[in-house]
Amino acid sequence: MFDNIALLGMAPLLNVQLLLDGLLIGAIFALAAYGLALVWGVMNVKNLAQGDFVIMGGYIAVVLANNGIHPILGLPLAAVVMFIFGWIMYRTIIRRVVERDMFTSLLATFGIAIVLAQSLNLAFGPDVQVAKSGFETMSMFGGNVTISQAKLIAFVLAAILATGLVLFMKNSRMGQAIRATAQDARAAKVMGIDTDRVYAFTFALNAAICGAAGVLIAMVWVIQPFFGITHSIRSFVIVTAAGFGNLPGVIIAGLGLGGLEQFSGFILGAEFQQATVVGTLIAVLLWRQIQQRRHRQVVE
Amino acid sequence: MSRFIKLTGMAMGVAATAMMISGTANAKVEGDTIILGSAISFTGKYSTNGIHAKNGYELAIKKINEGGGVKVGGKSYMLKVIYYDDESTPARGAQLAERLIKQDGVQFMLGPYSSGLTKAIAPVTEKHKIPMVEAEGASRSLFTQGYKYLFAVLSTSEQYLASAVGLAAEIGKKNGKKAGDITVAMAFENDPFSLDVRAGVLDDVKKHGLKVVIDDKLPRDLSDMTATLTKVRAIKPDLLVVSGHSKGAATAARQIKELKIDVPMIAMTHCEAAKVVKKFGPSTNDFLCPTQWAETLSYSDKLFGTAMEYDTLFKATFEGYKNVPYQAAQASAAVQVWKDAFERAQSFDKDKVRDALAATDMKSFYGNIRFSKAGNNIAKPMVLRQIQNGEYKVVAPTKWASDPVNWPRKAQ
After folding, report:
1. Scanning every residue of chain A, which has its alpha carbon at the shortest distance from the alpha carbon of B280?
2. How many domains is chain B built from?
3. Is B288 within 8 Å of B386 (Cβ atoms)?
4. How far, in Å, CA of B215 to CA of B198, rounded?
5. Taking Cα atoms as reference points, which of B194, B382, B399, B193 lies closest to residue B294?
6. Is position B376 within any domain?
């Protein structure tokens, strides 16, 4: 461990490399996490199938890439397909659990996650897949820092998507309706908003966001039917750390998580990469508790 | 009266069913058919390789049955396998093994796919004293439990990458490096198989006096190893070894290319299963990949002929194979071991057959097979192949090498 820290001190460029890798991948995490925050905040549904939606988007990209359609062109298509899929999921399952308690929605989405992973496995087999993008790697500082173009492009796309989402939520009628419903569903209903439709749209939008994130993941990493759970965990960690309805927070937490994973992987070894993520979550939750206790005392 | 007849009829029916059940409970051999049993993965995460293994079993059975079957006591017996799908889950595998033995009365077992499933099933077969010949569980830990009824035709996992370490030491010394200056970076998945591979590598590192500079354990659901590879790029070891099943090979191959890792020698398991050449093209050139078997080896037997002939027959029998996976070849060899054991035992008594299995010493298209006391095959070495211009060429051990090893590897 100390050797690795010393190594980072000796070759400062390594820090640049790790930071770049972390931030670029973190943007994709943030995207999927934002979808989760949306569904969580608006519908109070904790979607455990979030990561499986991501993987599903990835498989759409793989299928398209194998048929000669570049993943970047496949991205809008994957988003549309996933939007429709999300809508169907809402109509058939999610609408029945929205008003129920937390455990019902957890169980339902966990069930969806299992069915999705197994179906993907039946359809594509358990082997790892990649969506070939044909992008090259750029070298800087005499080859000491490399940036894969795929990651850079994925980062830019994630940023564009996030900006689009923010504008959509701010300015469009549906965006306003979603925010109104999130604030107070009953009041929104009284004001004439069709909350059922808002829920359906929100869930479908989340699926579409996941689909887009999945395409990016398949472009820069590898996917496998059972990899959904790690992406779900990442999304949960980010949202829990940032709090929902807090988009800048989600972005910062996403990027931070990406960077943290890289540094902990480097310093502590790859086996602690995930452990650090979960460890951080615990630390954040503890910190929150302490903060809230203080807050409570003030209120009293 | 009619009621009495009805009752007797019913009673007789029940008795007949009971007899049928107890009949099957002893059926190891039905008529002129020897029944083998196997719980194997047709669905779930091991399904691809599970099906390769089943195809291997079926091809050998077809060939043996066509050639007159198994001859015991002057009579010919056909072979047949009862399969159940273990859904790639160990608990289900153990349950199904129990069912094969207790309900179907199977007395002779073929193995499942993967070390994990074999680990789950072996205690069951051991408990019932049912001999099992397995072809897909390579973990060293299977052969340290003192099992008496478990026999494996494949080389154990600690041998997978050991020869790559030897090769690195040899080349390093040839280039005037001291053993202690030859450095090794290791990245292994945190699962029984890969940790076994790691133990083998460590043994050989110690034997040759090399120096380990990175020793990372990759998480099970691994899809990113840039942190580890960034370290590799900074430290520039002489040898990088990676093992993490297909996903490890695919992730490593992708990110070695992406990060332009320039290490003179890279060795990893599961290159072929992960189809790295097809997915990542020329950037995978000069990777060293161990294999249990290759069609270019000079092994042969009476049933299949040479390894190459097996390869041709397999491709002609099953559609969609461009290369024959070694998982299929070793499954076929396991069936051959059964035939050989029955014919030497000249009996279907499971203990006599077990003793015959233990005394196996045969040549096959897959390699020589002789079991240690622990049940693993000690007569067949692992083979190391190198990807040269997109093709897998045998480079070690020297006895079977078809091409010299390319060194140093150039970053593509």
Report:
1. A132
2. 2
3. yes
4. 9
5. B382
6. no
**8 Å CB contact between B244 and B192:** no
**Residue that has been written with the tokens 């996403």 in this structure:** A254
Q: Residues B93-109: pLDDT tens digits?
A: 999 999 999 999 999 99
What architecture is domain A2-299? Orthogonal Bundle (1.10)
One-letter amino acid at B109 equals M
A12–chain B Cβ distance below 8 A for any pair: no
Element (H, E) at B80: strand B75-85
How many Cα atoms sit within 13 Å of A189 on the Cβ side?
A: 6
Answer whether A132 touches B (CB < 8 Å). yes
From the list B238, B221, B96, B251, the residue with the least C-alpha distance to B171 is B238
In DSSP terms, B39 is beta-bridged to B84
Residue from A137, A144, A135 nearest A71 by CA:
A135
Q: Do B164 and B268 belong together in one domain?
A: yes
Is residue B70 in a domain? yes
Question: What is chain A's alpha carbon radius of gyration, rounded to the nearest angstrom?
Answer: 20
pLDDT digits (tens, 9 = 90+) for B163-205: 899 999 999 999 898 988 999 999 999 888 888 899 999 999 9
- Do B188 and B301 have their domain in common? no
**B410 assigned to some structural domain:** no
Which among B43, B190, B247 has CB closest to A122?
A: B43
- C-alpha B389/C-alpha B412 separation (Å) is 12
Task: Quote the tokens at residue B182.
Answer: 């030859």
Helix (H) or strand (E) holding A114: helix A102-124
Find the domain containing B282 and state its range: 159-291+383-400
**Chain B contact present for A214, CB below 8 A:** no
pLDDT digits (tens, 9 = 90+) for B55-87: 999 999 999 999 999 999 999 999 999 999 999
